[in-house]
């Protein structure tokens, strides 16, 4: 047996333990929207006061944006300035020791680990065998919204935002565009940012989602620093897969994401092809002048007759 064949045989068993996480191409309508938002300087219709941070040492100029809440029925995170969307920290909350657990998101790897996710009770209510909470290694969930345990809107400068107030449902499908607009990953709204830190942060997702965007080097202490990630939340109950619309007991990220792919594609089709307001008729100046001349000519002709 040749040395090369021997090496291949020895290597094959180890390949089985390497996660094969991938993402899909971005459809043209979503790509056009991403490009448009990336070039914008700021959100025109913020749903929250500025005061959110993408990084601990960065500016508090991030907000939840509703520029396309009425036409596409979506909301998203963005900062102030061109190219300022959001980064992606890794959230390790939820189930530990389950399918896919390779230690990259162990309890000690995440400084703010919480034993359960925000919607653990909803996940458990689905009564799926063996699934009592989300699994960061399998479920591509997004941390979206900021909670404050007190009734006050601000606690020492901490900002609150509840996406549900704008029609986003817990465990609804979300679309995440990452890698500079080259990749699309479908996930679910699965957790919220708590007030356990000094600042109100945005831009966080499960290890499964981060790995699909950034590769196997992602971990509880290593996320995506570039602020080019677009987190899209969709409003309405039709965005919720429910107990039977997703494979909550999937053994891998790929298996779970495939189960929500159809719904994700359906929701993305809300976005107009050019990324502008859906149903809006764009009339060129030339056409407007022609219409005016034709209309005026008709009136003048009738007058002279």
From TrEMBL:
Keywords: Carbohydrate metabolism, Glycosidase, Hydrolase, Polysaccharide degradation, Secreted, Signal. Residues 1-23 form the signal peptide. The keyword Hydrolase applies. It is an enzyme of class 3 (hydrolase). Its main location: secreted. One of its GO terms (molecular function) is chitosanase activity. Its EC number is 3.2.1.132. Coiled coil: none annotated. One of its GO terms (biological process) is polysaccharide catabolic process. It comes from the Eukaryota. InterPro entries: Chitosanase_fungal. It catalyses: Endohydrolysis of beta-(1->4)-linkages between D-glucosamine residues in a partly acetylated chitosan. This is Endo-chitosanase. It comes from Pseudoneurospora amorphoporcata.
């Amino acid at each position: 047996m040749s040395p090369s064949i021997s090496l291949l045989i020895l290597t094959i068993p180890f390949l089985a333990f390497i996660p094969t996480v991938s993402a899909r191409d971005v459809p043209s309508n979503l790509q056009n929207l991403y490009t448009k938002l990336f070039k914008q300087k700021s959100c025109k219709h913020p749903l929250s006061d500025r005061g959110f941070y993408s990084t601990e040492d960065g500016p508090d100029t991030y907000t939840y944006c509703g520029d396309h809440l009425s036409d596409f029925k979506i909301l998203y995170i963005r900062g102030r300035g061109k190219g300022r969307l959001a980064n992606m920290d890794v959230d390790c909350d939820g189930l530990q020791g389950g399918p896919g657990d390779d230690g990259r998101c162990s309890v000690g790897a995440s400084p703010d680990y919480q034993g359960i996710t925000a919607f653990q009770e909803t996940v458990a209510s689905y009564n799926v065998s063996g699934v009592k909470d989300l699994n960061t290694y399998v479920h591509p969930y997004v941390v979206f919204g900021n909670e404050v345990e007190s009734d006050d809107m601000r606690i020492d400068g901490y900002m609150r935002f509840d996406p549900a107030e704008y029609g986003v449902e817990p465990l609804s499908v979300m679309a995440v565009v990452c890698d500079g607009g080259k990749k699309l990953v479908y996930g679910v709204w699965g957790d919220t940012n708590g007030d356990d830190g000094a600042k109100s942060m945005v831009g966080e997702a499960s290890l499964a989602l981060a790995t699909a965007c950034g590769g196997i080097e992602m971990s509880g202490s290593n996320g995506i620093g570039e602020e080019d990630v677009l987190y899209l939340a969709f409003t309405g109950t039709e965005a919720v897969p429910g107990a039977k619309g997703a494979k909550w007991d999937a053994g891998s990220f790929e298996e779970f994401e495939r189960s929500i792919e159809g719904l994700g594609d359906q929701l993305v089709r809300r976005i107009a092809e050019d990324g502008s307001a859906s149903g809006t008729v764009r009339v060129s100046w030339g056409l407007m002048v022609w219409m005016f001349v034709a209309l005026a000519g008709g009136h003048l002709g009738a007058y002279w007759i």
